[in-house]
């Protein structure tokens, strides 16, 4: 133990670091060295932002890895905060040592946690557990200033717990944090069926507008889980049990699209939470495909682009080995050389269920013109496009070609 340990030195060190525009790593390592403690800083999803220790992925007791253990400590802090209105560090005794856990606040939002712990194999510089908590609180205040200065996170007023759960759903870097007992317990309390997944993306990116939209959703749907990353707002609507709620979600998303210039991918309601990851994928693909093919629309429903989504997954494997690939290319060449519209006519005809009247209306041509074109298309392709198996394969080939261009 250092006889001359002074808590005021911690203040001086962080203020000097803030004045010299130091980094999170520099600040963490400087305080850890002075206090002779191990310090780890994580975001609300458990991602390690900085650590004074090399042990970031190593094992821990009870079969947990270090990241899982840190998330458990954060979960304990959140529970204590709810029950005891905790403002400062929480002290946890583990084995022969102590851990001080506290949140890092930025503009009133919890953006991460700092865990400062004594090291069993080293004599601590801090004389009492109270000083350990004080040192950690000083560090958290300084880290909050640094995070705000460098724009570390996007700020919106959803609860810390809901944001942690949202990140576990929508961020690939989060890993499977729900297998952790303490996180899963909270999750089971808050995540209730039925569900709707939505992904919003701005046509012209503007961070402030993105935050306002996320806040509007959090205010309108307090039971939702919202996560912002890379210019997108990811939302899991929870407890959507009646048709009125479903219609309300669609109306609010439509208003947001108009007010803030969003495009939105949206799922149908579902009741199995294990499908969130798959629904998230379908919605993102619907948004991607819809923006490319129908940019005039605002909202793209997952199953409206279901075939295109399936084909987009297969396009890299099938490549040019598509059904009638050579003949379809001849159809395109005919259009280029003679100014005909055979390829697009075939596409619309197949998409309209091989209905002559509907397709001719869609293309604004006379029914007889439509029949003439179909005859020429049959001749060029050398198949009967009205045979069910042929029309199905042709439609898939055309969609695969289009998805190849999009990809």
Structural features, described:
This protein has helices at about 5-20, 25-35, 65-85, 130-150, 160-170, 180-190, 205-220, 245-260, 275-295, 305-320, 325-340, 340-350, 355-365, 365-380, 390-405; strands spanning about 35-45, 50, 90-95, 95-105, 110-120, 195-200, 225-230, 230-240, 260-265, 300. By secondary structure, the chain is an alpha+beta fold. It folds into 3 domains: about 5-150, Beta-Lactamase; about 160-315, Reverse transcriptase/Diguanylate cyclase domain (Alpha-Beta Plaits, 2-Layer Sandwich); about 320-405, PucR C-terminal helix-turn-helix domain (Arc Repressor Mutant, subunit A). Strands 2-1-5-4-3 form a 5-stranded antiparallel β-sheet, sandwiched between helices. A 5-stranded mixed β-sheet has the order 7-8-6-9-10. The protein starts with 6 loop residues before the first helix and ends with a helix.
The first-level CATH class name of the largest domain? Alpha Beta
Number of strands: 10
Overall residue-averaged pLDDT value: 85
* Rg over CA atoms: 29 Å
- Structural class designation: alpha+beta
Low-pLDDT segments, ≥5 res: none
Give the strand line-up of the largest sheet.
Answer: 2-1-5-4-3
Number of helices: 15
Architecture (CATH level 2) name of the largest domain: 2-Layer Sandwich
Structurally, the number of domains stands at: 3
- N-to-C order of helices and strands: HHEEHEEEHHHEHEEHEHEHHHHHH
Shape: elongated
Q: Separation of termini?
A: 61 Å
The residue fraction in helices comes out at: 40-55%
Could you state the CATH homologous superfamily of the largest domain? Reverse transcriptase/Diguanylate cyclase domain
CATH topology of the largest domain, which one?
A: Alpha-Beta Plaits
How many strands, which pairing sense, and closed or not: the largest β-sheet? Answer: 5 strands, antiparallel
Strand content: 15-25%
